[in-house]
Amino acid sequence: MSQTDPHQSLVVSYLTMRKAIGWLGMLLPFVLLIGNGCINGLDILNSERWIYKQAPCYVKYTADPLYKSSISHYYYSTVGELFTGTLCAVALFMFCYKGHPKRHGEWGPSEGHMTNLAAFFALGVVIFPTSSDGCISDNIRTYLSTSFTGYIHFTFAALFFIALALLSMVYFRRSEQLQDFGKGKNDNFYLGCGITMLVCLTIIFIYAKFVEGRIEWLDKFPIIFIFEAVALIAFGLSWLTKGRVDYLFIPKKLGLMKK
């Protein structure tokens, strides 16, 4: 790239934003899992170095199993702020991300409008926490949401994943010419990521609605957490790939790279 071109930093920021969104989404389940495990393993919430144990309101913290029933249930754990903070960061990046403008002959909202919708749904996931598992020993929240709030949370989470899937399946596969839609080198990968997200969402719904609590051996596994993690990995890989591909394509298209 030309070091004197005023558009260089804007292009890099635009593509870096894509990668940031991808990394935040893909790493979220692992950061929550590892973070909660480290805090519990080091017994930080019972250490006098960090906690004022002489306070009248002090209650001994007892860690529960590392895996929660879903990623959203980490809201009530030691890494609750990390969960909400990451989603807020993703929402902020998506609100700032404008994407490619809508061209003549294209159907539906623009890429920027779709990312704004996804950001709105992400904030809904934060504002309306999932229903609590009850006053379990490692629940550090005094606020416990009802099942009604949990339904709102699930709706926002479902809409968030649907919006992400559409971005991958439709908007990431657009090309300069309308007739070349879906013919790009990585377009099948974007399609696969979107389908993976929708399949995971469907499995989560079926399990939560018809299976959970009915098959004892299956309930021993964090089914919802696993498929949420797979969906987020697909989401992250899609955005990381798009950022990496356009890192070379967009600057060249704008004439910011030397021939």
List the helices and strands and how they pair.
Blueprint lengths: L7 H34 L38 H17 L14 H17 L19 H23 L17 H25 L11 H31 L6
Helix pairs in contact: 1-2, 1-6, 2-3, 3-4, 4-5, 4-6, 5-6
- Judged by helices, strands and strand pairing, the structural class is mainly alpha
The total count of strands amounts to 0
Largest sheet descriptor? none
Give the helix level as a range of percent.
Answer: 55-70%
Compute the separation of the termini in Å. 9 Å
The rough form would be described as elongated
Strand content: under 5%
Low-confidence stretches: 6-10, 247-259
Q: What can you tell me about this protein's structure?
A:
The protein is mainly alpha-helical and 259 residues long. The protein has one domain (8-99, 119-253). Helix content is 57%, strand content 0%. It has 6 helices and no strands. The radius of gyration is 21 Å and the shape is elongated. The chain starts with 7 loop residues before the first helix and ends in a 6-residue tail after the last helix. Mean pLDDT is 86; it is low at 6-10 and 247-259.
